[in-house]
């Protein structure tokens, strides 16, 4: 693979200066157009040690307007990063729409270095490559441009530069652009070639850069970035024209039985039984929360359901049993401008709990396939691909050691209307009832179809849905508590 760029190409200083003047002006213009189009661009800088990756990034910050750029070098993991899923640190560094992000190595470094050091098998490297492909494809579909640059040196030049840097380090601090240095050339290159071949896709291709000559390397980088930006901006203009016509609402026919119809809505619990069981399960949950903390196991609990289904009440019964230092509760509303500038999952990645802690979501990432689908706030292609994106997200949470619990609280239309009317008549509850709540009742069939498909397509072995009949609040609260206790106990004894 890399032999194709061992050609000994070079530029004179005069040739470089002439080309630099042209490229610098063109790249600045393209950067402005990128900002106007609200398109995010991510530049991945990777390659062999000593190839000048740091020098390239410094030059890019000189050529471009770095007020709209951010550079991330993933050196030693912070405490916050080690206590969250592997990809959390990368999501935190993704650029907003209209901005440019530069990542040293990004999600490629760890798989390559683990493999070349014998800490990961071929199959594990290939699995890592598949996850990378899925992530990059998802970001691309969301509109992000990903430019991947691999800097290559011949074995001879590599050893020469390592020797030079070793000698220089006796007097000055060596360049720290190669986070995982200290590996042999051959195994590193073989591991990199294997991963690159498996992640070189049509929409996110690799650019192999010959880095023997600094001038040629830097102009090659400029050419690759110019080509990527030019193509992405052209695609954006075409997409704007194509999306000018709203997509029709599809897939909302609720004819026929749904999975929600299988629930026994007549279940109820006497108040005396409720109080006894509430005390029992809250005591158990308190103990399990501390066990999870000691074990470093995070917990993610998602609540979805109809308006007035009792999500808030169920959450309060959970949180009152857990030490306030161990949990965070998020009530998910419409996204902010900052959140809208990123992939819709970005704001939920930000809230992923640290190891040992618990996060509860009143509404969640499922808004993409529920309210955004029904209200046509997301295009058809966006909510249709969200099922797999959500499954991948939750799988990463579970694979990192988290327990993921998802509840749908179901109430009948008759019970919901009764609760709406009670809220309307109770002064301290009136704020809970909005015009949207009444309007959503008119779209019950559309929402029920969306819920049914959501459950069918996102109830996985690692993160199954738990459907709770909630016409009786006592019954619903106890069953939520019971399920949380059982799942936490199971997860603690499995991990």
Automatic annotation (TrEMBL):
Q: Which residues form the Polyphosphate kinase-2-related domain?
A: 11-231, 269-491
Signal peptide (UniProt feature, chain positions): none
Domain of life of the native organism: Bacteria
Please give the SUPFAM superfamilies that the UniProt record associates with this protein.
P-loop containing nucleoside triphosphate hydrolases
- A Pfam family per the record: PPK2
Q: Which GO terms describe its biological process?
A: polyphosphate metabolic process
Q: Which UniProt keywords apply?
A: Kinase, Transferase
Q: What InterPro entries does the record point to?
A: P-loop_NTPase, PolyP_AMP_Tfrase, PPK2-related
**A single GO molecular function term of this UniProt record:** kinase activity
The name this protein carries in UniProt is: Polyphosphate kinase 2
